[in-house]
Design brief:
Low-confidence stretches of chain A: none
Largest sheet of chain B: 9 strands, mixed
Number of strands of chain B: 11
Strand content of chain B: 15-25%
CATH superfamily of the largest domain in chain B: Thiolase/Chalcone synthase
Structural class of chain B: alpha/beta
Largest sheet of chain A: 5 strands, antiparallel
Order of helices and strands of chain B: EHEHHEHEHHHHEEEHEHEHHHHEE
Number of domains of chain B: 2
Distance between the termini of chain A: 31 Å
Number of strands of chain A: 8
Radius of gyration of chain A: 16 Å
Oligomer: heterodimer
Structural class of chain A: mainly beta
Bound molecules: zinc ion
Mean pLDDT of chain B: 97
Number of helices of chain A: 2
Shape of chain B: globular
Chain lengths: 129, 387
């Protein structure tokens, strides 16, 4: 990933800054700049997501792409935040611990590196709450 | 709108084709389809090429022109060639574009082709992850099998589907594939083969996953009223439909229902004016075993949560109530991504012509294809009838 592409989304990736449609109240994380329900009637503003949520579904990744292969096995989950939106993230826990509805909270972690001399991608992972 | 018929089909051998290049692969299927239709290159009005990621797999873009060139279509006719991309649904979508072009009256004879050369790439796991949301799925470490694994986890938590029933999808597809000469895998497997294979993303194991493959397929379509000039066994396209959903799995209304599959399925049955029970065979997109389970439910052949029993009873085998993936599916026949949707059409047309040999579904009159892009963001369905 190029530096600009990563830098552009630093607030969102580091601090779970999503968006909210003030017309219908829906929170979007990952952020959207157009509300799919209200479209042009929507009014999109930034929204700081709580970082607390629960596991909706999960897997344990045993075979990863080259960039993540040093992490295997790792837990990947879809998490529903208290704000009502869902996102995909790693959960830092033993693969045998992960369950449906498990409460989790966000933490700031290294996600991946672009090789030994490339940039380090930071972002959000989750831990059992 | 004009009725459209398939007048020619061709499919390359699927597999790890180390000695064959991207462009050679395409020419292989294209030549077979043209010969089957009994036409010459000059009569082709347009070409649509389904391809997911030649840019990443073989570092080549501008695929339409490359293929027109090496198919010998740039001399007299300067035939227009358009690449179509919808990840794993690229082939089905290329076919749909060809059907629409003929139905509209803009073109008469159109070739839809699909090709993918996957074994030249280093990190195919990463290339395939681009079928999902790179920014908010891939970035976090989600792999493509990982996304379908999360569908499987959700499904098995909510409905009664045993690990054995899930494995039986792959067992059945290998059995069908063993009777298909172009199939990548020609061997039969058992439930145990699946359950003892390496875990890729829990609960999915290696034998739940379609392989990395090279291959191509091509189909020639023409107006139905012209079809008899080319073939004694035209097959009519009685329905075409396509639907979209969110690119990321986490944004779906329901994790283990592909709403785009439901929508495309409903539309195609409505347009074709046939019932589910009239379908003699269906080729669905089994990139993973769980995807086939979801497909037969989301297309409305059985209620949500009831596919497990259908598989346990063997009803999806040739000779059963609903033969599914008689080609061997993506699992056994192979999954050269852009070619898959056209291989599905190739298989259904082969069956409806009664030319499927050992894997022939007796008296097949109506067949269906369902081609999925990504984790369900694009679904393309077609219905066919023997004339
Ligand atoms: Zn809104």
């Amino acid at each position: 990933m190029t530096v600009a592409r990563f830098w552009r989304k630093i607030p969102q990736r580091y601090n779970l800054i999503g968006t909210k449609c003030e017309n219908c109240g829906t929170v979007f994380f990952p952020p959207r700049s157009l509300c799919p329900d209200c479209r042009r009637d929507g009014k999109i503003v930034d929204h700081h997501c709580s970082g607390r949520g629960k596991v909706v579904t999960y897997t344990v990744i045993r075979t990863a792409s080259d960039q993540f292969s040093n992490l295997t096995p790792y837990v990947l989950a879809i998490i529903e935040l208290e704000d009502g939106c869902r996102l995909t993230s790693q959960v830092i826990c033993d693969p045998s611990e992960i369950t449906f509805g498990m409460p989790v909270r966000s933490v700031f972690r290294v996600i991946a590196e672009d090789g030994p001399s490339g940039i380090i991608h930071y972002g959000t992972k989750f831990v059992p709450a | 709108m004009r009725d459209v018929a398939v007048i020619g089909i061709g499919c390359s051998k699927f597999g790890e084709r180390w000695d064959t290049s991207f462009r050679e692969l395409f020419v292989e299927a294209g030549t077979l389809a043209i010969e089957d239709a009994g036409i010459d290159g000059e009569s082709i009005d347009a070409l649509y090429v389904g391809n997911m990621s030649a840019g990443r797999f073989v570092e080549q873009e501008h695929i339409g022109a490359l293929i027109a060139d090496y198919a010998g279509l740039t001399r007299a006719g300067h035939t227009p060639a358009t690449r179509v991309e919808a990840a794993c649904a690229s082939g089905g979508l290329a076919f749909r574009q060809a059907v629409l072009a003929v139905a509209s009256g803009m073109e008469d004879i159109v070739v839809a082709a699909g090709v993918e050369k996957m074994t030249d790439a280093g990190d195919s796991t990463d290339v395939l992850a681009a079928a999902a949301d790179r920014e908010w799925e891939g970035f976090t470490g989600a792999t493509f099998p990982g996304l379908y694994a999360m569908i499987a986890t959700d499904y098995m938590h909510r409905y009664s589907l045993t690990r054995e029933q899930l494995a039986s999808v792959a067992v059945k597809n290998h059995y069908h594939g063993s009777m298909n000469p172009i199939s990548q895998f020609q061997n039969e497997i058992t439930i145990d083969t699946v359950l003892r294979s390496t875990l890729v993303a829990d609960p999915l194991r290696l034998f739940d996953c379609s392989p990395v493959s090279d291959g191509s397929a091509a189909v020639v379509v023409a107006p139905l009223e012209m079809a008899r000039d080319f073939t004694d066994a035209p097959v009519t396209v009685i329905g075409t439909a396509q639907a979209s959903d969110t690119i990321a799995l986490h944004d779906r209304r329901d994790i283990s229902t592909l709403d785009a599959s439901v929508a495309a399925g409903n539309r195609v049955f409505e347009r074709a004016r046939v019932d589910r029970k009239d379908v003699d065979l269906v080729e669905v997109h089994d990139c993973f075993t769980i995807a086939e389970i979801c497909a037969v439910e989301d297309l409305g052949f059985v209620k949500k949560g009831e596919a497990g029993m259908l598989y346990e009873e063997g009803q999806t085998y040739i000779g059963g109530d609903l033969p599914v993936n008689t080609s061997g599916g993506l699992k056994a026949c192979g999954h050269p991504v852009g070619a898959t949707g056209l291989k599905q059409v190739w298989e259904v047309v082969t069956q409806l012509r009664g030319e499927a040999g050992k894997r022939q579904v007796d008296g097949a009159e109506i067949g269906m294809t369902q081609n999925v892009g990504g984790s369900g963001a694009t679904v393309v369905c077609h219905l066919f009838r023997r004339v």
